[in-house]
Amino acid sequence: MKAFDRENSVWARFSEEQRLEMEEYSKKYRQFLDTARTERLANAEIIRQAEAAGFRPLSNYTSLKAGDKVYWNQKGKSVILAVIGTEPVSQGMKIVGSHIDCPRLDLKAMPVTEKNGIVYFKTHYYGGLLKYQWVCLPLSLIGVVYTADGRRIDVSIGEDPDDPVFFINDLLPHLGKDQAAKKLSEAISGEMLMPLVGTNSEEEKTKPAVLELLKKKYGIEEEDFASAELEIIPAIKSRDVGLDRSMIMSHGHDDRVCSYGNLAAILTAHAGTKTQVALFADKEEIGSVGNTGVHSAFFPDFVAELLALQGHTEELWLRRTMRNSQVLSADVCAALDPVFADAYEETNAARLGYGICLCKYTGARGKAGSNDANAEFLSQVRQIFNAADVPWQIGELGKVDQGGGGTIAYIMADWGCDVVDCGVAMHSMHAPLEIVAKSDAYSGYLAYKAFFESK
Known about the structure:
Distance between the termini: 22 Å
CATH architecture of the largest domain: 3-Layer(aba) Sandwich
Strand order of the largest sheet: 1-2-3-13-4-14-20-16-18
Low-confidence stretches: none
EC number: 3.4.11.-
Number of strands: 22
Strand content: 15-25%
Radius of gyration: 23 Å
Largest sheet: 9 strands, mixed
CATH superfamily of the largest domain: Zn peptidases
GO molecular function: aminopeptidase activity
């Protein structure tokens, strides 16, 4: 099979056996999507699968040897898995870095409000999204609340078929003349993204009745919202798309399509000479901030702990290790959409169904904020993919002056690692529901596995 092929899709290049393997992989990926609906749930599912495969908390170890499987749980929202190689960790690692947070709506600290007898939740959107896309959808509420006495309460409303859902209104077209005259970015404002919560009450005000329902079901007082993380996401599970079932629709493909490929790869890759590391980070969609984002110290701290368990405690060893390491920044790229062809430069755009996408640079207008991978490392990655028959393509994030974006690549490059963006190309990125091709999702898994197993 030709690994790099701009004329024939992955489906056309695959054998019947490979097509069956792709379908089986896609089923497992959809199960992951429907379970790992938030970054906290993704964290828990990754750890569950890792422990079933023999991974243990790093804190359980007093020394490390080849073949040991360890993990680091960063505050229930980020995860690192590692398989120790035959070479010392200080000789460098093979790292695949993905993220498990997704664009969504977050409840504000005082979210419950009433207007003319209707109770709403006030929200603040998380990540770069198009606000008008979030109206008129069934929505779920998922997250955690900590009460005044410190109890943790897990909340999930809208995921079970018998649950009620939430809904954000839009203006009817009969009255929408003024709204239609506005720019798309202004037709729905952030403060208008208020899900409907309730209308029934025997009292003059509805809000107290709604708060009483929350208290009865969950034991939550209004003040408890101040110590809560509650997310609004589409109450729609993954579905196959197209008469040929070649695509998957879901919330959160960005970046769970790469995260699941990363997880499946490290669970199935043969242990190698280099230590294999799968990173699943939080907060990428808002700049990798906070102590669960990659800008924080938790990943270098993890590597320092590995080194200490192999007898190296000086900071110099950490710096050497990072310089010796190679990274695939596993994040999605935009696939050419013929309906919006003017936004893309077709020759250099990735295409749906043509394999994992190598993106030399991201950034915006002049590569600002980009890692801009070096040719030497790109050459090595090409050789790895070609040798393993991994379907791959080249892509970039739209026309030069159109826009752009960023990943964790530049942050990991700051540590001294060789890094290139390598992710699944997709349609409708950052929409409530996104589209990927099954063949591209499977190619991502093959790419990350081949990279882990390379020397």
